[in-house]
Design goal:
Layout lengths: L2 H13 L2 H8 L3 H15 L4 E4 L2 E4 L1 H21 L11 E6 L1 H16 L5 E6 L4 H7 L4 E5 L7 E15 L6 E3 L22 E3 L2 H7 L4 E6 L6 E13 L6 H20 L1
Parallel strand pairs: 3-4, 3-5, 7-8
Antiparallel strand pairs: 1-2, 5-10, 6-9, 6-10
Length: 265
């Protein structure tokens, strides 16, 4: 059986639609549909059933997918060149948490561009970023270290703390960060009576408001740190891809840029 066809199957299994699979593979939707038809004939199973929510794997597809994925990974590792050159990359996708996007987004793009001419897709971290890392449409992300799906690998790269910044005579601002504190009041660890009267979900807006108001800002260890508001940051990627040369290179680059950007903020 054609190895490329099995790779299409795994991509389709993760993506849940021929359109998304085609985008991830860089091929046409008709190509993916043609390969799927061939696999259905060869394996004597429909493999996927079309539903309102996309393609639903059959029980047979669920059974063989992990084995095929493992086999493909082993073959890719065996064939991977000993020397990795980022200049050969074509596409890079990174997701960052809201404050980090502003703090290090430009520096990260500059650092990546200095080593490769690949297309760079830098987006804000969303709850759906976890799924994108698992299905391979996202290479790497930086967000808080917390409980996540077991298909993800997290590497702690920094510990930071909340520091009070701004004009304490003004109103208290809460910055909402998706997939972190939508329903958690971290500042209550310092003052249970503290209530925000301004709530925003944009770091740049929060910064603009600090001239007349105050809030907590993530910093590395400092004299004004409040240890009760601790946040661990991690580089996050698919557990299946953690040893890929591309992921290792990107992880080290992101860590270096992030630490420098936070230190200078």
């Amino acid at each position: 059986m054609d190895l490329n066809a099995l790779n299409v199957f795994i991509t389709l299994y993760r993506a849940g639609s021929t359109q998304r699979a085609a985008k991830q593979l860089g091929r046409s939707q008709s190509f993916v549909s043609k390969v799927l038809a061939q696999l259905r004939e060869e394996l004597s199973d429909p493999l996927f059933i079309r539903t309102a929510n996309g393609l639903q794997p059959t029980s047979y597809a669920d059974k063989i997918a992990p084995k095929i994925q493992s086999s493909i990974e082993q073959i890719n590792l065996a064939l991977e060149p000993e020397y990795f050159d980022p200049k050969n990359l074509q596409y890079i996708t990174v997701h960052l948490g809201e404050p980090l996007m502003v703090m290090m987004g430009k520096d990260l793009i500059d650092a990546i561009r200095a080593e490769t001419s690949a297309v760079i897709e830098l987006r804000q971290w969303r709850k759906t970023s976890n799924d994108g890392l698992i299905d391979g449409s996202i290479d790497i992300g930086i967000q808080t270290l917390r409980e996540r799906p077991q298909q993800l690998y997290q590497k702690k790269i920094a510990s930071g703390y909340g520091s009070l910044v701004g004009n304490k005579n003004g109103e208290f601002i809460k910055l909402i960060i998706e997939d972190l504190n939508e329903y958690v009041e971290l500042y209550r660890a310092i003052d249970v009576k503290l209530n925000p009267t301004i709530i925003v979900d944009n770091y740049s807006v929060q910064r603009q408001l600090l001239a007349d108001n105050y809030s907590y800002q993530f910093k590395l260890e400092s004299d004004d740190s409040h240890k009760a508001i601790a946040v661990d940051l991690a580089v996050i990627c698919s557990a299946a891809r953690r040893h890929e040369a591309k992921i290792s290179w990107l992880s080290e680059l992101c860590q270096k840029v992030m630490l420098q950007s936070i230190a200078n903020s």
